[in-house]
Design a protein that fits this description.
With 454 residues, the chain is of the alpha+beta class. The chain has a single domain, classed as Cytochrome P450 (Cytochrome p450), CATH 1.10.630.10. The protein has 19 helices and 10 strands. The strands form 4 sheets. It has a 4-stranded mixed beta sheet. Helix 6 packs across helix 7 and helix 13 crosses helix 19. The radius of gyration is 22 Å and the shape is globular.
Length: 454
């Protein structure tokens, strides 16, 4: 962690450099006063994320109760609260729900392509375009499509979430204080999302109030919230634990959609496009697949089931998230003394770090790891990938709840974009990632989108 404070790069890169230098299954280090173990062995990773979940159920993020948004997000440390909230939100991401919600994402993807077409200046900043799409699509999926706006890309949430999710010195210092100087973090009552608390909660309260009594089926998150609020106080029959679904708690879950999905999905799409520009043969094969699906359908229409036919696109997204995992480091804190499968003892309060980027670029699991090769995820090859060496959405009980949503969002966005546009060939240069405590981000990298002759 100290090295992260003085370095220019990201924490995932620092973890990878440590990972590559040591042959041991577990590497001991520290984050200030907090003992930390960097895990390399997939069996140890599996134990922490799944097998010994009762002893590693906390993400290890120190939160202050006065930080209303952060303390109510799905990475909350209160296990009973987390379990109940997750249980109630899981149905949001079933195939049936996503199929009903698809019209929202497809409308956003259409508007995204029009945005690219109409804004030559924005094309000079392609990540901004992609990020606008992922943020606006999440906004429409949470709040519904605003019929008063011409385009879903004119979302009021884009600027707010860009500011909230872009790594800053202030944000990194708050995260580091929480990890390195926890007592100081508590004493100062610092907030990781304090700047967005009042405006975002205010928006949720206003929308929930305006939608009361609305009988129109929209299939968005607000509709789910209204259904949950009708249930009143939730109760776990086994433990007796009770939870009231307050507007603040629901606002935090809505914010979580943005926090967990906007930047991460945008980053995965961004790197996929960069690699496609650098690999013309892969791009040509993808164009052929996308064109085939559109031409076999009804003109310019695209359905939820059509996405399943785009297997090669799915492979490309998977490979993008392997080489450039949007979240490059996972962590869990030990809540009870434990022993890992490798034989290493882990005491209570020790943090276990899982260096996702390092694992996914380890040549033991992925030969020629720096090569962008979607065939790694072809059906006949994907089954050979060693378990717990591919972790872009995490694994186990706390894996990303919105993983299926994210894939649909990325696939429909890329399918529509690459139906109308192609990429000027360019050489992929080594990437310098932005300074970030968890993610891999390189918003300044450029690729040239140009209209296709179809």
């Amino acid at each position: 962690m100290y090295k992260f404070m003085i370095s220019k790069g990201s924490l995932p890169e620092i973890c990878k450099s440590i990972y590559d230098k040591h042959d041991a299954d577990v590497i001991g280090t520290s984050s200030g006063t907090v003992q930390t173990l960097l895990l390399k062995n997939p069996q140890d990773i599996q134990a922490v994320l799944t097998g010994e979940f009762s002893k590693f159920n906390s993400r290890g993020f120190l939160l202050n109760p006065n930080d209303v948004l952060a303390d109510n997000l799905l990475f909350m440390n209160d296990v009973q609260k987390w379990k109940m909230v997750r249980q109630k939100l899981t149905p949001v991401f079933t195939s049936a729900r996503l199929k009903n919600m698809f019209y929202i994402m497809d409308r956003c993807a259409r508007d995204f392509v029009d945005l690219v077409d109409d804004n030559p200046q924005l094309k000079k900043k392609p990540y901004t375009l992609v990020y606008t799409y992922t943020t606006a699509a999440i906004g429409a999926s949470v709040f519904g499509i605003d019929t008063k706006t011409r385009s879903t890309m004119d979302s009021p949430y884009v600027a707010m979430m860009w500011k909230a999710l872009t790594p800053t010195l202030k944000g990194n210092l708050i995260l580091l204080t929480a990890n390195i100087f926890p007592n100081l973090y508590k004493l100062l009552k610092l907030k990781t999302l304090g700047d967005y608390e009042k405006p975002f909660i205010g928006i949720i309260k206003k929308v929930l109030e305006s939608r009361k009594g609305d009988t129109q089926k929209r299939h968005d998150f607000i509709e789910i919230c209204l259904e949950l609020k009708k249930q009143g106080v939730l109760k776990d029959t086994t433990s007796g634990y009770e939870l009231e679904l307050s507007d603040e708690l629901l606002a935090a879950q809505a914010f979580f959609f943005f926090a967990a999905g906007a930047d991460t999905s945008g980053t995965a799409m961004h790197f996929a496009l960069l690699e496609l520009a650098s690999n013309p043969k892969i791009l040509a094969k993808l164009h052929k697949e996308i064109d085939g699906v559109f031409e076999a359908g009804n003109g310019d229409e695209l359905t939820y089931d059509d996405l399943d036919k785009m297997q090669y696109l799915d492979m490309i997204i998977s490979e993008s998230m392997r080489k450039y995992p949007p979240i490059g480091v996972l962590q869990r804190i030990c809540t009870r003394d434990s022993v890992l499968p490798s034989g290493v003892s882990v005491e209570k309060d020790v943090v276990c770090m899982i260096p996702v980027m390092a694992v996914q670029r380890d040549e033991k699991y992925y030969p020629d790891p720096e090569v962008f090769d979607p065939e790694r995820f072809a059906p006949e090859n994907a089954s050979n990938i060693k378990k717990y060496t591919y972790l872009p959405f995490g694994e186990g009980n706390r894996h990303c709840l919105g993983a299926r949503f994210a894939r649909v969002q990325m696939k429909v966005g890329l399918a529509r974009l690459l139906r109308r546009f192609t990429l000027t060939p360019q050489k992929m240069e080594p990437v310098e990632f932005e300074k970030s405590a968890f993610g891999l981000r390189a918003a300044d990298l450029f690729y040239d989108l140009k209209l296709r002759n179809i």
